[in-house]
């Protein structure tokens, strides 16, 4: 079931000072919770977690987390990165229980963008990820948005997308049909007949 694995060690030295010491030692503090079990504080090698999350699919994939030899399936719930250097500073994982629905953030892949661009349109992505709920076995690696038939003035909403089998969009369940992308005309500066910018 798992193509993604991480090794971790349990930690008892908690607090901001302990977290700073871990990072100086090239380790990342993390928390595992959910699944009707107590929250568990762990530490993961910085280079190992960085390598795993170079693959975009890891953000929306079930991960096999090996904590001191005890394996459990998890998904990433939140990731804190350094504001300027972008390296991972902290991670939250949620345990996955077979047969029990989970909520995850899935990246959006846009395809067919060249079609509206050839018509003179400009494509704007208003979201790059979508929150979904589904069983672990149905968790998609990404949601595809096809823009090949989009015209200038088109706005793509969540309700326009076809969710994979067994997958629901969380926002729609809360009546939030948010925009995902839109195609608009390029902004141009108005010019007068002499070719000079028009006076306001």
Automatic annotation (TrEMBL):
InterPro entries tied to this protein: Rbsml_bL25/Gln-tRNA_synth_N, Ribosomal_bL25/Gln-tRNA_synth, Ribosomal_bL25_b-dom, Ribosomal_bL25_C, Ribosomal_bL25_long, Ribosomal_bL25_short, Ribosomal_L25_dom, Ribosomal_uL5_bac-type
A single BP term in Gene Ontology: translation
Keywords recorded for this protein, A-Z: Ribonucleoprotein, Ribosomal protein, RNA-binding, rRNA-binding
Gene3D superfamilies in UniProt: Ribosomal protein L25, beta domain, Ribosomal Protein L25, Chain P
Keyword rRNA-binding: yes
Gene Ontology MF terms: 5S rRNA binding; structural constituent of ribosome
Chain coiled-coil ranges: none
Keyword Nucleus attributed: no
SUPFAM superfamilies for this protein: Ribosomal protein L25-like
GO cellular component: cytosolic large ribosomal subunit
Function: This is one of the proteins that binds to the 5S RNA in the ribosome where it forms part of the central protuberance.
Family from the record: Belongs to the bacterial ribosomal protein bL25 family. CTC subfamily.
Complex and partners: Part of the 50S ribosomal subunit; part of the 5S rRNA/L5/L18/L25 subcomplex. Contacts the 5S rRNA. Binds to the 5S rRNA independently of L5 and L18.
Protein name: Large ribosomal subunit protein bL25
Classification of source organism: Bacteria, Pseudomonadati, Pseudomonadota, Gammaproteobacteria, Pseudomonadales
């Amino acid at each position: 079931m798992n193509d993604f694995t991480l090794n971790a060690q349990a930690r008892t030295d908690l607090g901001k000072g302990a977290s700073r010491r871990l990072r100086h030692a090239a380790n990342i503090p993390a928390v595992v919770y959910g699944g009707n079990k107590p929250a568990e504080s762990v530490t993961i090698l910085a280079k190992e977690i960085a390598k795993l999350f170079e693959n975009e699919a890891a953000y929306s994939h079930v991960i096999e987390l090996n904590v001191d030899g005890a394996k459990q399936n998890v998904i990433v719930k939140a990731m804190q990165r350094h504001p300027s250097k972008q390296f991972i500073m902290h991670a939250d994982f949620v345990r996955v229980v077979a047969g029990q629905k989970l909520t995850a953030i899935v990246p959006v892949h846009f395809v067919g963008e060249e079609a509206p661009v050839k018509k003179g349109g400009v494509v704007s992505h208003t979201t790059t990820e979508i929150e979904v709920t589904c069983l672990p076995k149905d968790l998609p690696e990404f949601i595809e948005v096809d823009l090949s038939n989009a015209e200038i003035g088109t706005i793509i909403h969540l309700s326009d997308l076809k969710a994979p089998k067994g997958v629901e969009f969380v926002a729609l369940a809360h009546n939030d049909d948010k925009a995902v992308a839109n195609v608009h005309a390029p902004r141009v500066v108005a010019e007068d007949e002499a070719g000079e910018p028009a006076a306001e």
